[in-house]
Write a structure and sequence with these properties.
284 residues, two-stranded antiparallel ribbon, 2 domains, alpha/beta, 8 helices, Spore Coat Polysaccharide Biosynthesis Protein SpsA, Chain A, 9-stranded mixed sheet
Length: 284
């Protein structure tokens, strides 16, 4: 019998990844629900070709949080338990994964509304194990009606009503779209993060996972450091103190791009926003 669990997969032009994601979960659950924003490639054709358990709903993309919150309220979700899986992710060792998850969901003594799991990250097919990238605990399984995404434009967290547990099972983020897709995506992330930093000192939200609370406090300290110098400090911390150097050549490239170049880009957009706001005030 398949687990009564809805796998929620947000998509937009994910034809290179979607079939692999669905193949890793479809044999074990009774519903895969693709949340698409009108893809213009073969995402939906490939998704439906994998399994008869695939349903599709369409939600306009304004922000990721808004898209997912609309999906979480959808009447098409058939189960009381939901698992979010991105299109470029896969479940690691699916049989043991869903066996452990089924046991946890069925154990009513736990009285949990959500479960944290581990996430691996791959860059150019290389598992990035250092620099603070692994283990990375993420909330991905939760009860229907008990969770929603906070209103942020990047690095959104789920807010739950109730208690959670950790399960030692894993998913892997292993995008197959190539490095230029990674670059384009992170340019957009940098713009969003630059805009979001204006609220970072005002946000008082406490998260269920203490790691997320500590991470938020560390971000406030980071953004208190000098512009354009702080990415170099952060890169050195990840590469040396957190042993990112141990990840080999592909890992070196990843840490350089993510911890230094991306962070410099965020600072560039922060300065750009400040200049635009200053000029707007001066001309008004």
């Amino acid at each position: 019998m398949k687990l009564p669990l809805t796998i929620l997969i947000p998509t937009y032009n994910e034809e290179k990844n979607i079939a692999r994601a669905i193949e890793s979960v479809a044999p074990f659950v009774n519903q895969v629900l693709v949340v698409d924003s009108w893809s213009c490639d073969k995402t939906l054709q490939k998704a439906k070709s994998v399994s008869d358990n695939v349903d599709v709903i369409f939600v306009e993309f304004t922000t990721f949080s808004n898209k997912m919150n609309i999906a979480l309220a959808s009447e098409y979700i058939r189960n009381n338990w939901i698992m979010r899986l991105d299109a470029d992710e896969v479940v690691v060792e699916p049989e043991s994964f869903f066996y452990a998850l089924s046991a946890a969901i069925d154990d009513h003594r736990l009285d949990r509304v959500g479960f944290y799991i581990n996430r691996r990250y791959y860059f150019l097919n290389k598992w990035i194990m250092h620099g603070g990238m692994y283990p990375r605990v993420v909330l991905r399984v939760f009860k229907k009606g008990k969770a929603q995404f906070e209103n942020k434009s990047v690095d959104e967290k789920m807010i739950l009503e109730g208690t959670t547990s950790f399960l030692d099972i894993e998913i892997a983020d292993a995008c197959q779209n190539g490095i230029m897709h990674w670059v384009r995506k992170h340019i957009q992330y940098a713009k969003r993060e630059a805009a979001d930093t204006r609220q970072i000192y005002k946000r008082t939200q406490r998260y269920d996972l203490e790691f997320d609370n500590e991470n938020h406090e560390n971000k406030k300290k980071y953004y208190g450091m000098p512009l354009f110098l702080r990415p170099l400090i952060y890169f050195a911390y990840r590469f040396i103190a957190r042993k990112g150097i141990s990840d080999g050549p592909k890992g070196w490239l990843y840490h350089f791009l993510h911890a230094f170049v991306y962070r410099e880009l965020v600072d560039y957009y922060i300065v750009k926003l400040r200049i635009e706001e200053f000029l707007k005030k001066k001309t008004s």
